[in-house]
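Annotated sample (chain length 180).
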Amino acid sequence: MSQNLIFNIAFWKSGTHSLNTALNILGYRSVHHVDSNNRRLSEYVEQNLANKQLLFTGLEQYNAFCDFDGYLYYQQLYHQYPNSKFIVMLRNNQDWLNSIETHKNNFVYNKDLPYLNTDWAKWKQQTLDEIQHFFADKQCVLYIDIDQDNCWQKLCDFLNKPIPDVDFPHNFKSKEFLTN
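Output written by the structure step:
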């Protein structure tokens, strides 16, 4: 597997699917949440971690990874895959919390799971602080606010790619997703 990979390392419901689409538009072989066999990326990571292998062993056909709980593994990924790049998708906290609640109410079958009762805003900020601390002196991380930033400009500058002549994708906005 190439060592020059791209990892989206945080947070779900923050534009990870849009980032995946954007990376594919730019010519990367990006995968979001599940591979072509419908196996969750996090299953590969957990299995490879248990087997003391590189975390993305078995996914060599891809060079960009989105929505796999990367906020848990960014330090290992940094050391296992030198010269890789890391992208943190951000979103307005209230919109993010609303999206989590919508997801919980519409797509999660067991609504009593303990992780669904987490103080999400506090958890998100603590996790983001840890990520920012780890990458503070490194040039391999990009933070993109899906709602505020010129996403193509920031992403393409970071990846040294020309900006495509299409709008930045905004896939699966909660209101649009639920009405389709």
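Annotation: The two ends are 38 Å apart (CA to CA).
Annotation: Residues 93-107 form the longest helix (15 residues).
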